[in-house]
Amino acid sequence: MLVGYARVSTQDQNLSLQLDALKEIGCHKIFTEKASGAQRERPELTAALNYMRKGDILVVWKLDRLARSLKQLI
To answer: Using CA atoms, how far apart are residues 56 and 3, in angstroms rounded to an integer?
Structure first.
């Protein structure tokens, strides 16, 4: 199953471009968050990872929606 994760950094930003792309590619479940990428605690990202089962794939619109740097990604 494709599991989507969409994030914007501020409350003023809009998730619609990300959501449209994730739906178009076939994500069955999408988790959304309005939080800075610098935040260590991102409850919806944690929920998405906990939701996933063996064989599922996490899909993000752009890699910077998941992490701000390679160090943070690892």
So the answer is: 7
